[in-house]
Amino acid sequence: MKDKPKILVGDKIVDEALEMLRAEADVDLKRGIKQPELEEIIENYDALIVRSVPLVTEEVIKRGKKLKVVGRAGNGVDNIDLETATQQGVVVVNTPDSNSFSAGEQTIALMLASARNLPQAHQTVKEGGWGRSRYMGSELYGKTVGIVGLGRIGSFVATRLKAFQMRVIAYDPYIPLERFKRFGVERVETLNELVRQSDIITVHTPKTEETIGMIGKEQFQIAKPGVRVVNCARGGIIDEGALAWALEEGIVASAALDVFSKEPCTGNPLLKFDNVVVTPHLGATTFEAQHRVGTDLARYVLAVLRGEIVPNTVNIPCLLGEEIDTMRPLLELAEYLGKLYYQLERMPVEKVELCYYGEIAQQETGIITLAFLKGLLSPVMGDQVNLVNATWFAENRGIKVCERRDESKRSGHVNLISVIFRGNGTKVEFAGTLAGDQTPRIVRVNQYRVDVTPSPYMLFVEHIDRPGVIGPFASALGKANINIAMMQAARKVKGEESMMILNIDSAVDEATLADLRKLGGISNVRVVNM
Ligand SMILES: NC(=O)C1=CN([C@@H]2O[C@H](COP(=O)(O)OP(=O)(O)OC[C@H]3O[C@@H](n4cnc5c(N)ncnc54)[C@H](O)[C@@H]3O)[C@@H](O)[C@H]2O)C=CC1
Ligand SMILES: O=C(O)C(=O)COP(=O)(O)O
């Protein structure tokens, strides 16, 4: 019996998610695990589950010799070294939709709390005071809110704030105008334009090289006096030093922060300002969000461990739930076409040209190319290559990969994947399609037109097209007790070099292979395992 996979859960996830994991795996729960311990024990695990801590560094991933998946129970993956994970073939999966409502509501809660001095007033009353005159607030009604990043959370915040009758503007150069229209948001062309017009600025981008410090001193210098800022995305998107300066200068009336450049934020200079309202990264901390992120992630992690493709994989092209089902046979076909190459040919590959013909050309073909590359490299690299690192390995081996799509049918097939391999000035071509029942078929091997269903044991035999060649070959297999399941012969020109492809029921040992190669009219026998 196969050993159960081992999963390390490094932070709190809901009990229901833990139960789901325990049904299929051995689970160790080490909530709040620290870096040194994580580095020490990670080699024992197939999967690691984290939230925004701990850091999943290069060291952690490289030491995780068995690691197949890092699951982020939440959205931001800035605590995970994605590059190393990709190189090592470790799938990184998250649950970005599952906590957006909570993070969006937290943003609005913080906005209102800081505009109305709620935490400060609350504290005064708790301490026996009253202080009504000290806590003059400011309405949201009629104000302009500037949203930086109109993604999941930014758009959620936008639609809610419209109910407050605010003017909502947004800056997000990476999304089409249609998305702004859908949410009734005015698009501004530049960040500085947004800053100039906003009474409140709220940031909702991921933390990237481009977004770190994007609201900095330059922006505070051109902002409306009395501007308020909210950061419920990632610490450092609003530069903390520049914010402290703008608070000192009285440019910023209030700031509300859920996230910090270093967490916990003990000793952060911003804490000394009375008009800075803070929470300890609570955006996703609601019963509902934690239930969703935990159970969704448990499902995804288990599926990856079973070898399935899941939505929300951060380091391979993303597929939606139903797309995965449509894609599965195509991925299988592409992988077969890839696997064929090094088993049939001995020429190093310099360039691969994949062409997707027919209906398939309308699909997101990136992942099909990955499946092909995985198939191509697996005969030479074994299990270490997967969908996640296939491109990286291909690039490292100097293989240039080009993709082309053509919606017209080719050779009468509704879908066809054609692959041309180039190297040493020669060219090899394979093509495959899906049959009516969606089973993969190989339909071209160089100049030979064939119709072959890939199977675990196959023989590709080059021979002369003349009587008395195929019969003895089949007899020799029979003598070696190898059953032929299917057999097909293809030729270009009568009487010349031809190809016979056989699906057989068991492996052929070396001695039998040597005998087969000696038979009259046989010029080459290659074993292919799919
Ligand atoms: N405080 C908390 O507990 C939580 C925080 N988050 C954080 O919230 C942030 C937003 O999350 P989602 O809305 O789910 O992300 P998303 O990926 O759906 O949206 C991000 C948007 O930012 C835009 N963007 C990227 N670079 C930009 C730039 N330089 N300028 C302007 N726009 C840019 C993108 O085009 C995209 O539309 C992330 O940083 C995430 O980690 C998410 C959940 C909980
Ligand atoms: O999902 C996110 O991006 C968050 O920031 C939430 O972080 P957490 O899971 O609460 O540590």
TrEMBL record:
<dbReference type="Pfam" id="PF01842">
    <property type="entry name" value="ACT"/>
</dbReference>
<dbReference type="InterPro" id="IPR045626">
    <property type="entry name" value="PGDH_ASB_dom"/>
</dbReference>
<keyword id="KW-0520">NAD</keyword>
<dbReference type="InterPro" id="IPR002912">
    <property type="entry name" value="ACT_dom"/>
</dbReference>
<dbReference type="InterPro" id="IPR029009">
    <property type="entry name" value="ASB_dom_sf"/>
</dbReference>
<dbReference type="GO" id="GO:0004617">
    <property type="term" value="F:phosphoglycerate dehydrogenase activity"/>
</dbReference>
<protein>
    <recommendedName>
        <fullName>D-3-phosphoglycerate dehydrogenase</fullName>
        <ecNumber>1.1.1.95</ecNumber>
    </recommendedName>
</protein>
<keyword id="KW-0560">Oxidoreductase</keyword>
<dbReference type="Pfam" id="PF19304">
    <property type="entry name" value="PGDH_inter"/>
</dbReference>
<dbReference type="InterPro" id="IPR006140">
    <property type="entry name" value="D-isomer_DH_NAD-bd"/>
</dbReference>
<dbReference type="InterPro" id="IPR029753">
    <property type="entry name" value="D-isomer_DH_CS"/>
</dbReference>
<dbReference type="InterPro" id="IPR036291">
    <property type="entry name" value="NAD(P)-bd_dom_sf"/>
</dbReference>
<keyword id="KW-0718">Serine biosynthesis</keyword>
<dbReference type="InterPro" id="IPR029752">
    <property type="entry name" value="D-isomer_DH_CS1"/>
</dbReference>
<comment type="function">
    <text>Catalyzes the reversible oxidation of 3-phospho-D-glycerate to 3-phosphonooxypyruvate, the first step of the phosphorylated L-serine biosynthesis pathway. Also catalyzes the reversible oxidation of 2-hydroxyglutarate to 2-oxoglutarate.</text>
</comment>
<dbReference type="Pfam" id="PF02826">
    <property type="entry name" value="2-Hacid_dh_C"/>
</dbReference>
<comment type="similarity">
    <text>Belongs to the D-isomer specific 2-hydroxyacid dehydrogenase family.</text>
</comment>
<dbReference type="GO" id="GO:0051287">
    <property type="term" value="F:NAD binding"/>
</dbReference>
<comment type="pathway">
    <text>Amino-acid biosynthesis; L-serine biosynthesis; L-serine from 3-phospho-D-glycerate: step 1/3.</text>
</comment>
<feature type="domain" description="ACT">
    <location>
        <begin position="458"/>
        <end position="530"/>
    </location>
</feature>
<dbReference type="InterPro" id="IPR006139">
    <property type="entry name" value="D-isomer_2_OHA_DH_cat_dom"/>
</dbReference>
<dbReference type="InterPro" id="IPR006236">
    <property type="entry name" value="PGDH"/>
</dbReference>
<dbReference type="Pfam" id="PF00389">
    <property type="entry name" value="2-Hacid_dh"/>
</dbReference>
<dbReference type="GO" id="GO:0006564">
    <property type="term" value="P:L-serine biosynthetic process"/>
</dbReference>
<keyword id="KW-0028">Amino-acid biosynthesis</keyword>
<dbReference type="InterPro" id="IPR045865">
    <property type="entry name" value="ACT-like_dom_sf"/>
</dbReference>
